Amino acid sequence: MKVRHAVFAAACVIAITQGASLLGQTSRPSIFDADGAVHVPAMTVPASLLSSTEARASLAALANSSIPTTRRPSRDEIAAVQREDAAFFQNWTATKAATSGVTVTATTIGGVNTDVFAPQGGVPSRNRDRVLINLHGGGFFRGWRNYSVLESVPVSAMGGFKVVSVEYREAPDHHFPAASEDVAAVYKALLKTYKPQNIGIYGCSAGGILTFEALAWFQVHGLPRPGAIGIMGAGGMAEVAGDSLLTAQALSGRALPQDVVPDRGLDLLNLYFAAGSARDAAQSPAYYPDILRKFPPSLILNATRDLTMSDAIFTHRALVKAGASSELHIWDGVGHCFEYDSRLPESQEAHQLLIQFFDQHLGR
After folding, report:
1. Residue 316: predicted pLDDT
2. Alpha-carbon span 277 to 271, nearest angstrom
3. Cα-flanking dihedrals φ and ψ of residue 344, to 5°?
4. Whole-angstrom distance between the N-terminal and C-terminal Cα of the chain?
């Protein structure tokens, strides 16, 4: 494959020339092209010895999950993926909700459908004045009541938080800024009961992107900033770019899908975002220091085999340079939104970090 990223090219030179004996390879990359591209020979990358036994065992199962492999999937293709999601997660999510000690209540907040997760014994006194908003993953075209359960139940159960998960509008029927408008509507409604500094917002993948977009939307529309935010498997931009886009796709065990374009990122996001506008301020706040410096404390969680790791690193650096508070944690050898599998030690650690972060910052 041909990769047009100098940093990745340099990393390949180091990994292959110095680590050839470890990987059982003797071939070396060709010289760099004039534009900095490098041709990388095939290589075998074993499961990371720095990941848990459970994580290494889960890699093959995750590699078999489906995503659309055309740049403009049809409604039928999208519907098929949504059905696969529902079938795959049905037993898992039902069991998780039933055994976690969490109640789930469907309700409308600010005119938007939501599911409210809360400890069965009631929200403990330390959290009664605090609430979390969850924005589920799914590429802005799927994920409601599949990923939303996996993101909300562990945080509510382990942290004793009330979590409001938002069914924001998605593609192909809706486009930016529909999701940002829905998050703002829920947030404004919650502000009638909770102080802004007592509200936290978090999400994984598309929900992580949307978390950043929502805060930019709040600024434009005069809403107070929340107390803290957390993003998993994402960066603060409406594109997926950088070295990890290509390396993580290869390490996931999947063939490089057609929707990944090395010079343009992940075209699949254009189902929701208008093509060519990925770096607008409202869609990609990570590129705008004046917006970032007004952000609350941010927690960014990612992994070496996540296609969004480069975006997460870039976003963390951008926040710090803008003078905002940011924490970045990266796990080795696990992939995109590994937090969904709460059986993994890495997932449990990530959830605990998220809970501790909100406990530390909300109300401060």
Report:
1. 98
2. 12
3. -75, 135
4. 49
pLDDT at 71 (0 to 100): 53
The runs of H, that is alpha helices, within the chain are: 6-18, 20-23, 53-63, 75-99, 147-159, 178-190, 206-220, 243-251, 289-292, 309-322, 345-361
101: left (phi over 0), alpha (psi -120 to 50) or beta: left
- The answer to whether the beta carbons of residues 312 and 318 sit under 8 Å apart is no
- State the Cα–Cα distance between residues 237 and 208, nearest whole angstrom: 9
Q: Would you say how long the chain is, in residues? A: 364
Alpha-carbon distance of 149 to 340, in angstroms, equals: 9
Q: Could you tell me the pTM of the whole model?
A: 0.85
Q: What is the pLDDT of residue 55?
A: 81
Residues forming beta bridges with residue 305, ordered by sequence position: 335
Q: Could you give the CA distance from residue 13 to residue 26 in angstroms, rounded to a whole number?
A: 12
Mean pLDDT split into 10-residue runs, the chain, 364 residues:
37 37 50 74 77 79 51 73 72 63 94 96 95 95 88 94 97 94 98 98 97 97 98 93 79 50 54 76 95 98 93 97 98 90 90 98 89
Alpha carbons 197 and 127: distance in angstroms, whole number = 13
Phi, psi of 67, rounded to the nearest 5 degrees:
-140, 155
List the one residue out of 266, 150, 165 whose CA is nearest residue 210: 165
Torsion of CA 318, 236, 332, 64, to 10 degrees: -160
